[in-house]
Structures are given as C-alpha cells and as structure tokens.
TrEMBL record:
Signal peptide (UniProt feature, chain positions): 1-23
Protein name: Putative TonB-dependent receptor
Record domain TonB-dependent receptor-like beta-barrel: where: 362-891
Any one biological process term the GO annotation gives: siderophore transmembrane transport
Keywords: Membrane, Receptor, Signal, TonB box
Subcellular location field: Cell outer membrane
Length: 918
C-alpha cells in the first residue's frame, strides 16, 4: 500500500509540473449516428508512426514533423475507418465516423504473442472487450466468462470465482494460468489465481482473452487447463474520469432458496482516472470496492450414510462443521457394562458392530462471517522515453474478506495481496520484472476450527477424569434405551443431553473460543496459517522479424522465484522459507506459404524447476489454412508438461482434526511425515478394518515422489465470417495425459505400527495426498458457436460445448467436474429508439445436472441442473456523459450452485449509474 501511495504522490507532482497547452492539429471525433463524442479513437498520420487517441470528450491534439498536407487516419473497432486531409499545422477539424459491424474484426494477442485476427487464430480463443464489459448484464467480468465457449467456473463466494476450460473444474485450479498486464496472478503460497481479488478493476478492462486447453508452450508449465490473459487500459488511450456506482439487493427469498439470509444490500463502486499529461507522460488511478452479504453454503447431505442429523448419530455434512470428529463408542459401552452387568440385555446386542457417533457440527450461517468485501487499488505510470521505447511502473493492491472452498471452507479474512511491476517495452521487445507478495491475514479454516471449539468447550474424552462428551452421550443413550425409547430417539436425546450448555455462534463463550483457536498458529495448537510467501519474476522477449527474414521469430526467457514462507503452517518451512526457482526459455516461429494462404507455426519452451532433477520441453505446432475468403481451417498439436505446483508438491494444509491436505513430494512425505517409517494405508481400508476388526483389511498405499504430468493435445477447428454478418466457429479436441496428478485419502499412525492404533481417531492421521496415476487418461470434447449481426444494432450469439474423460483412474480424485454439455445464449441491442439512447442485453446459461467431487474428502454428489437468465436495460444521458442501467443476475431467482459444498446463488437486482463509460 505504501508503494501505491508513493506512486500517487509522483502522479500529482507530474500533473502540476507538466500540464500545459499543446499546439498542433486539434479536433474532435463524434459518432455520426448519434452525435456523441467518440473516445479512445485512434488518430494517426498515414504512413507514419505518429499518432494519438481522442480523450473522453472525443478531443485530440496531434503534433507532427511531417510536411503538410498530411492525411489523418481515424479508426476504432465498431466504426468505419476514415481518412481526412489536413493542410495546416494549426487546423481545427471536426470529424464524424459512422458505426460499422465489428463482427469478425476482433484482434487477439495471446494466441501467438503477436497481434492477429481472432478469426485466423491457430488455437481456440475467447474474448471479452471493454465494450462487452460496459453492456453486460452481469455485475463483473469474472461472471461474464461463464457464458464463453468452453469455459467452466466454480463460484466459492461473491468475489471468488475460479475459471478453467476443458472440464477440469474445481476451486483454486492450479493448472489454469491467469495473467494480468503480463503478471501471473497466482497467490505465491496457495499457487492458484485469487479470482477477482487482485485482478483488474471493472473500469480498467481493455481486453480479456481466454485460451482453451494446453497453453504451456508460451505461458509456462501451469497452463495445462488454459490461460486467461487480461490487459488493462492504456492511459494514453483511455483518458478522463470514469465512475461506476452499482446499488443492488440480494438474498431475495424464493421457494428454491434455502437461504438463511434476509434481503441485503449489494454495493459495487469503481472509479478510474486516466490522464495524458503530454506526449511523454500519462498515468491512471483505479479504485474499486465491493460489499455484500455473501452467499451461504448450506449442503446438509450426510457424508456418512443415508440418514439425517436426526436419524444418524454419525451425521456429518459438507457445510456442517465439526462433525468430522467421529468416535466408536463401543469402549464406553463396554465400560458401562463392566460397571453394571445388569445392562447386558441393552449393551451386548450393540457390541456386535461399531457404533460411530459424530460430534455436533455448526452450520455455516452465523459461524463464518458472510460480510463479503473486496477493495482493489491500482496506480500506473507510463513514460515514453522516445518514439519507440516506453517505461511502465505499476502497483496493485487488494484486500478483503471472502470465502473459498477446497478441502473445507476457508474464510479468507483481511488477506492482503500486492503486485508491483517495472517494465520497458517497444514494438519489438519487452523486459519486465514484478513482485507478488501475500499476507493470509486472519484466515479461518472452517472444519478444524469447529472441531477445536467443540473440544475447547467440552473434550470428547478426558482421560484424567474419565468424563467428556462421549461418556456423557453413552450414559444418556443407555438411559434412553432402558426406558424403552427407539434407537433413533435415544440417540437424539443422548445428543441433546451431551450438548447441554453448548455455546452457539454469537454467544460470548463461542466467540472467545473461536477467536482464540483461529488466531493461534497451527504448530501451537490452533488453526491459523501464516502465509507470507512471495513471488519474484523477471522475463524478456524479442521479436526478430526485423533481423530474420525467412520467418517471424519470437524468443523469450524467464526466471521465477517462489519464496514459500508460512512458518510451518502450510509448508515444512519451520526453520526458514523454502525457495523454489523456475527457469524457462521459449521460441516461436511462424511463416506464411502458398500465396499467404497457409500459416505454419511452431513453439518450443524449456522449463526447469529446482524441485525436480530434469528439465521439461513443451511444444506447439499449428496450421491455419485460408480455404476461401474469410474461411479458415486450423489444426494444432500442443504438448505440455506441468511441474506440480506448491500445493501439489509441498503443501501441508490442516483441513480437520488430525487431517491434512498434502503434497506428493518426498520432502514432505518422507522428511516431514516419515511415511518410510510409518506406512500409509488407504483410508477406505482403515474404515474397513474398523468395521471388521481384521488387520488383513488394511491395504498399504504405494506412494512415490511426485512427478510432472504431461498432456498431448490435438485440436481441429473451422471459423468463417459470412457476409460480415454471421460468424461461425466449430472445433473438436482430443488429449492424452501421462502421470496424471490426482488425489487419494490415506492414513497412518505416527509413532507406532500397531494396527490397533487405527481404532482410535485421535491416534491416527488422515492425509489427502497428490500422486501420479499410472494409467493413461484421455479427455476429449467439441464446441460450436454462432454470432449473428441482425442489423440495427441487434446482435445474437449462441454456443454449445461438451467435455468428456475416459480411462478415468477411480483411485484418484481428478477434479474433472463438468456436465455433459453447456448451452449459452445472448441477445441484445447497443442502441435503439430516438437517437439510439436505449440499449439492452440478455444472457442465458443452461447446464444439466452432473456429478462433482471435491478433493480432500469434503464432499461429493450431484449438482442439480441450472438455467440462469441475466438481463439489463440502459438509457444514456448524453449531455451528462452518463447512463442509467437497471438489471438483474439470475432474474428468475431460482437458486443454483456451481459445485458441491459451494453456496447456492440467488438473484441480484441492481441499479447502476455510469459516468464516462457509455
């Protein structure tokens, strides 16, 4: 935050020192159809590198050294290009440009790290522009991606959306790369993108591009499931003060809600100020605050059987925290029988099988703080050293309170993440360095904290006194059965007896226990993790097109340092931070042949990670053939390796009492867990042994040091633009995975190899471990999209896509959570009525029900089908440079979820005031 404050000071100094009147060609550019000023329009001198952009009022000033007369080229996406001849250096001209269909004119950069038309891209790529963001009915661009072809999302809460492609859908996907202005947006310790927590603000989005599937050849080893590249607005181009004020309401009750929260306000306020001081210096400042009552996860499905909390004494559900403490009460029954043999008719029939009883859990509402809030700030300075080289310095800071779903629910409270960048760039090369620093704040781990609260109030069993929750429960159960109560009634009455005086959320005792446990670090007996990890990255790239003539050649190098610092709460770093280095280099070649009809491309990347001995090579080859005008056939092969992320290799995260989500590196499994001395067994076999009392039921888990996984992916696609009105894109893909990384639940008994230890839950430890599957796994799918310009500013879009997996390793949790198909539709108009002051947009998303598994053993089950309709209507206040929008997301208010153990999402109805945006 101090860095951003310093940059703000620099901005103010430059503003006061450099602001002066400029001479040269001056003028305005307006929309010919509506008479509105046209901002961010390119005004350049033909056959020259000299140029500028119109400001927020459509004004421009252009200085030139060219002799007069000169020809100005006026261009912008969505308008016809116009040329104007100027005869005088002091000329003042007014220019009107006519709107035009932009369908098929979209350009992308991320597909090949060079500018090209999206229509002729060598790989599948989806795009969101700043104009799309401005007209969308969704509340933010992270929600907008749900409607893109091939994209899946998991929504853990307001403000935390995880994006992926090609079926691998889970919260915190470590194999999807999110890049913001050239910076990897991952949290250094957790090693996955933090959704919208530190990405661009809503007003600063220039362009978002999403590459489906393997994209490691150009973007590094983590991009197996896709890459999202986000570009902020250039302050030289996008100038002026903009504001976006959204006031809404959510948690509006409906018959499908099961929502414990009443109607609550939703706030989203954003401001952006971009200023071009002169041709040398420009800056921008961004601020955004989002606040609301968060959606609440309320899944009450019993993980331990078919019963409910009223009928199953061992009841435990995904969003009912504390029930993971489960004990076989037979030893307490045997003790009661030994004390009073007359109880034999009641007790002896029960001893023929285990009798597991779970502690009483706490529901999420009231236990976790559902006051969601996010604050993001950004300052960027740009200085043109000369006409070819630009220097950039930026700082971005995010903080807030959101909830995240993984092996349990995490209330990420008062977290802080900062990204700071220095960059030099030209049209041929760039050199970029950045730092990402995170502070996990007061993050609360829902599952184990609730278990510890129960123990802090009343221990399950106190060996010194012989008393405790389970002895009390057992005696009350026996008493109930002795009076003739049914087993179910006796168990329920026994729970009520043992829970007498149990503190509830809001009670002083409960809040005191919760605070003490959640603020005590894990090694000291609490549940707080203290992540202060950092990421340092330096990279450079050069385009050799001016030096090498036989092909277009781009090459780059990259160095990255992860400094993992959790004070032994996330990683085995009790002595000092763990440093992990990554080194990489890449080269891309492309050439057009056959009268420029066929574009041949190839990319190669070498990656080396200090955790692993051998470097890995990733590659991509592509062919794009223009079969006829505006008809392109594309074929690509991509080979990608993924070094296991920190969470897959080194992380040891507490997810319950004596339960951890663990990496697969021998540094953790042997040096930290000592699996070589105390063998791990599959958790299922441990549970079988507890039921059968037969040690032969125990099955050892065969582990080995985790290895990088790889994928070979093939894609065939076709795109065409028909009469500049209809855009069609179809594709199919097939991928083969080796050393596929999944997860397994295991257990061991540190300190002893006696199988008897597995009968006591307080003795053995459970782990959810990342490991490589031995078999080959295949994924495949297909997709199609159609966009139609219906004229008169009407646009309709529809897309359909499917993803499948075969040869699934049933011993692994693989995070392939996706329905058989997705269907998305959009229909809107960006200007109708008198002077085109009105506009509207609607989107519709449908997903059939599908099976979803959460790694870490949190939950599994079927996600119901969902049909979500979003809509908005807007009106422009031209003279005030403003607009009013009224709309809603999920307007039918039929609650839906994107994954098991995630919250149900209802409607948000809102009114938005936008200044300098429409």
């Amino acid at each position: 935050m101090k860095v951003i404050q310093s940059m703000l000071t620099v901005v103010l100094v430059f503003t006061s020192a450099l602001l002066f009147a400029q001479a040269g060609i001056k003028g305005t550019v307006k929309n010919k159809a509506t008479g509105e000023s046209a901002p961010a329009v390119s005004v350049s001198i033909k056959n020259s590198s000299e140029g500028t952009y119109t400001d927020d009022r459509g004004r421009f000033t252009l200085n030139t050294r060219k002799p007069f007369p000169v020809i100005l080229v006026i261009s912008s996406i969505g308008f016809e290009t116009k040329e104007v001849e100027v005869h005088d250096n002091n000329a003042r001209i007014d220019i009107a440009i006519a709107p035009a269909s932009s369908l098929g004119d979209e350009v992308v950069v991320s597909a090949s790290r060079t500018t090209q038309r999206k229509l002729s891209s060598p790989v599948t790529i989806e795009q969101i522009s700043s104009k799309d963001v401005a007209t969308s009915p969704q509340l933010n661009y992270m929600d907008m991606v749900q409607g893109l072809k091939g994209v899946d999302v998991t929504v853990s809460s307001i403000g935390f959306t995880t994006i992926t492609t090609r079926g691998f859908n889970t919260s915190g996907n470590t194999n999807f790369t999110q890049i913001v202005d050239g910076m990897d947006n991952q949290a250094p310790g957790l090693n996955f993108p933090l959704g919208g927590a530190i990405s661009l603000t809503q007003l600063d989005v220039d362009n978002i591009e999403i590459l489906s599937g393997a994209s490691s050849a150009l973007y590094g080893s983590r991009g197996l499931n896709g890459t999202m590249v986000m570009t902020g607005k250039d302050p030289f181009k996008y100038q002026g003060l903009s504001m976006l004020i959204t006031q809404g309401v959510n948690h509006v009750k409906s018959n499908s809600s099961n929502d414990p929260v009443g109607a609550s306000p939703y706030y989203d306020w954003a401001v952006r100020w971009g200023k071009k001081i002169n041709d040398k210096f420009a800056f921008k400042i961004n601020l955004q605050y989002t606040g609301a009552k968060d959606w609440v996860a309320t899944d009450t499905t019993n993980k331990n059987g078919p019963g409910t909390k009223y009928t199953d004494p061992n009841y435990n559900s995904p969003n009912y925290y504390g029930g993971a403490t489960s004990v076989n009460i037979n030893p307490f029954l045997e003790y009661a029988l030994a004390m009073d043999e007359s109880l034999a008719p009641i007790i002896e029939p029960m001893l023929g099988q285990p009798n597991y009883v779970a502690r009483t859990g706490y529901g999420e509402y009231g236990y976790l703080d559902n006051n969601a809030r996010l604050f993001k700030s950004n300052v960027e300075l740009r200085y043109n050293i000369n006409s070819r080289i630009q220097a950039i310095a930026s700082g971005t800071f995010g903080t807030g309170n959101v909830v995240y779903t993984n092996d349990t629910r995490y209330q990420i409270k008062d977290f802080k993440v900062g990204q700071y960048r220095l960059e030099l760039r030209s049209n041929r090369w760039f050199v970029r360095s950045y730092l990402t620093a995170e502070n996990s704040g007061k993050t609360l781990v829902a599952g184990p904290t609730a278990q510890y609260i129960n123990e802090g109030w009343k221990p399950s069993f106190d060996e010194s006194t012989g008393d405790g929750w389970y002895p009390q429960y057992t005696m009350a159960l026996i008493g109930g059965l002795a009076t003739g109560a049914s087993a179910a009634d006796a168990h329920w009455a026994a729970r009520g007896f043992a829970d007498q005086g149990r503190p509830m959320p809001g009670d002083p005792q409960f809040e005191q226990l919760k605070s003490a446990i959640s603020t005590t670090p894990i090694p000291e007996g609490g549940t707080l993790f203290q992540d202060r990890s950092k990421l340092v990255n330096t990279e450079a790239q050069y385009n050799f097109s001016d030096l090498i003539k036989f092909a277009n050649v781009i090459a780059g190098i990259n160095w990255r340092l992860y400094s993992l610092n959790s004070k032994n709460t996330l990683f085995p770093d009790e002595n000092k931070p763990i440093n992990v280095n990554e080194y990489s280099a890449y080269v891309q070649l492309s050439k057009k042949v056959i009268n420029n009809k066929l574009n041949i491309g190839a990319s190669f990347r070498l990656d080396k990670n200090s955790l692993f001995t051998s470097p890995k090579v990733t590659s991509r080859a592509s062919l794009v053939y223009e079969a006829a005008k505006e008809n392109y056939i594309r074929f690509s092969y991509q080979n990608a390796y993924s070094f296991p992320s920190n969470i897959q290799a080194l992380q040891s995260t507490l997810n319950g009492y004596n339960s951890y989500s663990s990496g697969g590196s021998n540094l953790l499994l042997i040096d930290h867990y000592h699996f070589d001395q105390y063998a791990p067994y599959t958790l299922q076999s441990v549970e079988d042994y507890q039921k059968s009392d037969d040690p032969a039921a125990l099955k050892k888990f065969l582990y080995s040091d985790i290895k990088p996984q790889s994928v070979n992916a093939f894609e065939l696609g076709y795109s065409t633009l028909i009469a500049k009105r209809v855009l069609i894109d179809v594709l199919g893909y097939y991928s083969t995975w080796q050393n596929f990384i999944g997860y397994a639940d295991v257990a061991n008994t540190p300190g002893t190899t006696d199988p008897e230890a597995f009968k006591d839950h307080s003795t053995y430890i459970q782990y959810n471990i990342a490991f490589n599957g031995a078999q080959t796994v295949n994924t495949y799918g297909y997709a199609a999209s159609v966009s139609v310009d219906l004229s008169h500013n009407f646009l309709a879009k529809v897309n359909y896509y499917s993803d499948f997996m075969k040869n699934r390793n049933n011993s692994q949790v693989n995070n392939f959570n996706t329905p058989n198909y997705h269907l998305n539709m959009e229909f809107g108009n960006n200007g109708f009525g008198k002077k085109q002051l009105w506009s509207f947009n609607t989107t519709f998303r449908y997903k059939p029900g599908y099976f979803y598994v959460v790694s870490g053993g949190l939950a599994q089950g079927r996600v119901p089908s969902s049909a979500v309709l979003d809509a908005q209507v807007s009106y422009k206040l031209v003279k005030a440079h403003s607009g009013i929008r009224v709309g809603g997301t999920n307007v039918t208010n039929k609650y839906y979820s994107t994954g098991i153990a995630n919250p149900n999402i209802g409607a948000v109805y809102y009114v938005t005031y936008a200044y300098n945006i429409f």
